[in-house]
Design brief:
mainly beta, protein yfey like fold, eight-stranded antiparallel β-sheet, 2 helices
Length: about 150
């Protein structure tokens, strides 16, 4: 269900009301109209670090994945090596040093066409620890809504 431009039938840019109508399941946390930035998680997700939807300015802008249960568009997953990500996404990968962990990196992959960006986070051993998809600038927020 992961896509460059959203998740399943959900598309980046949807307002909170439309998102709530399109999402077929229950959400943990509340859609919070008027809040500048917040996350909600699908019911059944054990921790927000496993999977969460981000809203900013009243619109769906990003989702974060920290589990092997989801596969990114193009095949990337948590647990893969940096070399595997580079092999999957090729010359589109933009590498950046991690803000907090020496030797770790961000692997940023713009959509081949259309809008959206994938961003894989690796640890110092070169393994993907989490990934996210979203639109700029929110996909690049290192601390999420913080």
């Amino acid at each position: 269900m992961a896509r460059y431009d959203g998740y399943g039938k959900l598309r980046f840019g949807m307002d909170e009301v439309t998102f709530g109508r399109v999402w077929s399941g229950k959400l943990q946390g509340q859609l919070d109209p008027g809040s500048s930035c917040y996350y909600v998680t699908p019911e059944g997700v054990k921790a927000p670090t496993d999977f969460a939807f981000m809203f900013e300015g009243g619109h769906f802008v990003r989702y974060d994945v920290g589990t092997t249960k989801e596969t990114a568009p193009g095949g990337g997953q948590v647990g893969m090596s940096k070399a595997q990500i580079l092999a999957l996404y090729g010359a589109r990968v933009e590498q950046q040093p991690h803000k907090y962990e020496s030797g770790a990196a961000y692997l940023r992959v713009p959509a081949p066409q259309g809008k959206g960006v994938l961003l894989f986070e690796t640890n110092a051993d070169g393994k993907v620890t989490r990934w996210r998809a979203g639109v700029s600038p929110q996909v690049d927020y290192v601390e999420g809504c913080s």
